[in-house]
Amino acid sequence: MTWSSEDFAGLAERAAKGAGFPEESARTFGRAAAVHLARGGRPDAIAEALRDPADSPILRLPLLMRDVMRAAKIAGPSVALSVLPADRALAPDYAELLPVALRDVTVMDASAGGPARLSAIVTEEPPTDSAALPALEVPESLVETLDRLANRALPAAEAARDAAP
């Protein structure tokens, strides 16, 4: 199925809300999920991130991105930070959302028993506009999963709207 990046990001955001993630985390996840597919990432990584709202890359990766910004200010433009195995697939996509341009973004495998590491160079260039993502080919199975989760959020949203004065 072909989706615009904006429509897919909206569906992924609604799915995250339906799965029980906070609104801001869901919004960021939606954008990162669209970047993930545009960059040729595995569709199942998106569904996997939604499985457990108490232990998910959706909660951890915004914190890692905050740390990338802090590390760049303190240690210079070259940054390398530990990444949990469950966060590897989506970490570069969250990095694309940062308000700075990055170069050479990679997730390096763990070596000698150490953790995997996100490595990037923060540049002085303005960031690219992620709103200009191409149309996305989204597997029907992923759309079904996201729709199912998004529909969980609908009754709660309708109840809140009906209860408002």
Our estimate of the beta-strand percent is: 5-15%
What is the N-to-C order of secondary-structure elements (H for helix, E for strand)? EHHHHEHEEEH
Q: State the share of residues found in helices, binned by percent.
A: 40-55%
Quick one: how many beta strands?
A: 5
Report what the structure shows.
- There is one protein chain.
- The chain is of the alpha+beta class.
- The protein has one domain.
- 52% of the residues lie in helices and 15% in strands.
- It has 6 helices and 5 strands.
- The strands form 2 sheets. A 3-stranded antiparallel β-sheet has the order 2-4-3. A two-stranded antiparallel ribbon has the order 1-5.
- A hairpin with a 7-residue loop joins strand 3 and strand 4.
- The mean pLDDT is 88.
